[in-house]
């Protein structure tokens, strides 16, 4: 019975497949796009703020923006100011840039992750219980981290300040 339930349907599917490919015309099936040739008479001038690496070599158009993030592997922990409670925070840094720039920026941050950890630590040294438990306090903390890291990137590393957001991926208060 098992043989009848598996072999017969498999043979039927195989025969229908063969019949369909040999006896039915397929000239009208599928998706066909005519060749489009775009000729540019004069070269496009780049805007001053466009990085040449962000231009698609095939089309000459600027690549679309891409979200990319770096999750900091270090867990920041300490004692809350004005309280006996302890906290731990995990942080992720977000960037939104054209595709290739986004990847290069995150890989550069990854290369200097130890320095980034040191700079984030400077910001979270003075965290209070009220600040970390309130929604607007956490927003202010993430904005402070973002602003500080971007400022540090410009002043110390001579890099583009590309961090567009900071997320607290894990927060614990003990």
Query: Mind telling me the C-alpha Rg?
Result: 28 Å
What is the count of DSSP helices, taking H or I runs of 4+ residues? Answer: 5
N→C terminal distance: 63 Å
CATH topology of the domain at 63-173: Tetrahydropterin Synthase, Chain A
**Sheet/helix structural class:** alpha+beta
- CATH structural architecture of the domain at 63-173: 2-Layer Sandwich
| CATH classification class of the domain at 63-173 | Alpha Beta
**Biggest β-sheet description:** 4 strands, antiparallel
Helix content: 40-55%
As a percent range, the share of strand residues is 15-25%
Mean pLDDT: 84
**Stretches where pLDDT falls below 50 for ≥5 residues?**
none
Order of SSEs, N→C? Answer: HEEEHHHHE
- Can you count the beta strands? 4
Shape: flat
Description:
The longest helix is centred in the N-terminal third of the chain and has 22 residues, at 2-23. The chain has helices at residues 2-23, 99-111, 113-124, 129-133, 135-155, and strands at residues 65-71, 76-79, 86-98, 163-173. It is α+β, with helices and mostly antiparallel strands and 174 residues long. Strands 1, 2, 3 and 4 form a 4-stranded antiparallel sheet that branches. The chain has a domain at 63-173: 2-Layer Sandwich (Tetrahydropterin Synthase, Chain A), CATH 3.30.479. It starts with a helix and ends with a strand. The mean pLDDT is 84. It is flat, with a radius of gyration of 28 Å. 42% of the residues lie in helices and 20% in strands. α3 (113-124) packs across α5.
């Amino acid at each position: 019975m098992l043989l009848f339930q598996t072999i017969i349907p498999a043979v039927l599917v195989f025969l229908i497949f063969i019949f369909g490919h040999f006896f039915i015309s397929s000239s009208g099936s599928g998706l066909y796009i005519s060749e489009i040739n775009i000729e540019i008479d004069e070269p496009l001038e780049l805007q001053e703020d466009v990085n040449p690496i962000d231009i698609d070599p095939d089309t000459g158009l600027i690549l679309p923006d891409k979200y990319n993030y770096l999750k900091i592997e270090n867990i920041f922990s300490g004692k809350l100011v004005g309280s006996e409670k302890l906290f731990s925070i995990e942080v992720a840094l977000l960037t939104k840039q054209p595709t290739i720039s986004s990847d290069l920026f995150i890989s550069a941050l990854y290369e200097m992750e130890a320095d980034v950890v040191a700079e984030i630590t400077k910001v979270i040294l003075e965290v209070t219980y009220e600040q970390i438990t309130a929604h607007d306090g956490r927003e202010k903390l993430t904005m402070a981290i973002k602003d500080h890291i971007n400022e540090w990137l410009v002043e110390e590393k001579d890099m583009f300040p590309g961090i567009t957001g900071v997320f607290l991926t894990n927060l614990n208060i003990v």
